[in-house]
Amino acid sequence: MFVIGHRGAAGTFPENTMISFKEAARVGAHGIELDVHMTKDGELAVIHDEKVDRTTNGKGYVKDFTYQDLQKLDASYKFKKKYGVCKIPTLNEVMEWALSEGISVNIELKNNIFDYPYLEMKVLDLIYLYKMKDRTMISSFNHNSLARIGSLDSTIETAILYSYPMYEPWVYAQHLGAKALHPNQRTVNEVNVAASKDCQIPVRPYTVNDVKVAEQLRKYGCESVITDYPEKMVKQFGGRFS
Ligand code: G3P
Ligand code: MG
């Protein structure tokens, strides 16, 4: 089973920062998951919330910051200087690093509240620029956005995110043209994983932090787990280097 580090290694490092992604890579995770919003001047910022308030020492919406002003914030302030100052990375920066590192990337489009203009095209452009298509998964709770991605490039790996039980999600995925399912782990059971696998649709639940739960999901046939603790999961299931 593959291990994808949620926001890098968010259980132990400041989420969605380079230091967190590097930690996930260091411990042997197969991939990293990250979240993308857009600044006022159209830069792709790697941060989870619409606002910077929870994870940085700033206040306000990402969409109201210029890229330059966003760079002045510290995304590790909650860790009380343990890791020094960590900037909010751009997607460009993470993709460039991931290419050299040889790690897979799950880009989550956070456009379910604000419909950032041309987000899908900008993300695709970066994937093409770094020739990372074979190692990138694009997921979103905004399924319209996934359909848009599919209409721009039907061969890219898109994954449907959902947090509540759905009726036959593997049928819905095929209808949408999505290639994978990224469900909240609470919604996953043996029957829906088996049915998805029969349709060649991999299931990668989030956020799986308990090894016993991960073991159960592996038995069901899940292809990957998305976890805040990649080190623990790699020890149990193996990683990129084992
Ligand atoms: O992509 C999996 C997971 O990250 C989805 O939820 O809120 O942690 O972005 P969230
Ligand atoms: Mg996410």
Describe the structure.
The protein has 9 helices and 8 strands. The model has no long low-confidence stretch (mean pLDDT 97). Strands 1, 2, 3, 4, 5, 6, 7 and 8 form an 8-stranded mixed β-sheet that branches. The chain is an alpha/beta fold and 242 residues long. The longest helix has 11 residues, at 91-101. It has helices at 18-26, 67-70, 91-101, 119-129, 143-152, 169-176, 190-198, 211-220, 230-237; strands at residues 2-5, 31-38, 44-46, 104-109, 136-140, 157-162, 180-183, 224-227. It is globular and about 50 Å long. Helix 1 links the parallel strand 1 (2-5) and strand 2 (31-38). The structure holds SN-glycerol-3-phosphate (G3P) and magnesium ion. Residues 6, 33, 35, 48, 108, 139, 161, 182, 206, 226 line the site of SN-glycerol-3-phosphate.
Mean pLDDT, all residues: 97
Question: Which architecture per CATH?
Answer: Alpha-Beta Barrel
CATH topology: TIM Barrel
List the uncertain runs: none
How far do the termini sit from each other? 12 Å
Sheet-strand content, in percent, reads 15-25%
Please indicate the count of domains. Answer: 1
- What is the level 1 CATH name? Alpha Beta
Number of helices: 9
Query: Which cofactors or ions or other ligands sit in this model?
Result: SN-glycerol-3-phosphate, magnesium ion
Share of residues in helices: 25-40%
Q: Give the full name of the CATH homologous superfamily.
A: Phosphatidylinositol (PI) phosphodiesterase
Structural class: alpha/beta
Radius of gyration: 17 Å
Characterize the largest beta sheet: strand count, sense, and whether it forms a barrel.
Answer: 8 strands, mixed
Count of extended strands: 8
Shape: globular
Order of helices and strands: EHEEHHEHEHEHEHHEH
